[in-house]
Design goal:
The chain is about 55% helix and about 10% strand. The protein is mainly α and about 70 residues long. The protein has one domain: Gyrase A, domain 2. A two-stranded antiparallel ribbon has the order 1-2. α1 runs antiparallel to α2. The longest helix is centred in the last third of the chain and has 22 residues. The protein starts with a helix and ends with a helix.
């Protein structure tokens, strides 16, 4: 899994959960901001669900890099 594949995985989860994270991809950094605009840019349970799925992808990405 490379960084774009990782981002695609997060995007698929975001689409499935109807979330729209702010994404910033730079040379060696990827930043995701999870808030709900309709809730005054606060973090909601839906955002936490996406964060959990993102964390799973991070763990798999780390395992792949360690090999």
């Amino acid at each position: 899994m490379n960084d774009i594949e990782f981002l695609e995985r997060v995007a698929e989860a975001a689409e499935r959960l109807n979330r729209h994270p702010d994404v910033e991809l730079r040379y060696v950094n990827l930043a995701l901001r999870l808030t709900t605009h309709d809730a005054g840019n606060k973090i909601t349970k839906k955002d936490l669900r996406l964060a959990g799925e993102t964390q799973k992808a991070v763990e798999e990405f780390r395992e792949m890099l360690a090999q």
